[in-house]
Amino acid sequence: MRDLLEAERAETQALIDRLTQGIDEVSAAREGDNSDDEHDPEGATLAFERSQAATLLEQSENRLEEIAEAVDRLNAGTFGTCIDCGRPIAEARLEARPYAAKCVNCAARG
Ligand SMILES: [Zn+2]
């Protein structure tokens, strides 16, 4: 399970690196460009792409936090136990989402 989490972490980190780089590139492309976002179709597209990338980046950073917490639980010996109800999390769920902190029932409740 530790390997699974490490793989997931590496993948998420790579995604964050790509997104950060992408946002930097879009920002750099905007520099020295005095065109008005509102009236420049290309500017609007760039702004849209940048906000999409920013949203994805935020999600990935949250994911990274969830993974770090899962590693903590692994070290504490509580991994695989729902943080809400204390029941074991189904193995199939952990295989799909090794960073899952809650069982299906508690996750569904939010
Ligand atoms: Zn639960």
UniProtKB/TrEMBL annotation:
UniProt cross-references to PROSITE patterns, sorted A to Z: ZF_DKSA_2
GO molecular function: zinc ion binding
Domain (Zinc finger DksA/TraR C4-type) ranges: 77-109
Organism, as annotated: Brevibacterium sediminis
Coiled-coil ranges (or none): 50-77
Alphabetical keyword list: Coiled coil, Metal-binding, Zinc, Zinc-finger
Name of the protein: DnaK suppressor protein
Chloroplast in keyword set: no
Zinc finger (dksA C4-type): 82-106
Domain of life of the native organism: Bacteria
Entries under PANTHER family matching the protein: GENERAL STRESS PROTEIN 16O, RNA POLYMERASE-BINDING TRANSCRIPTION FACTOR DKSA-RELATED
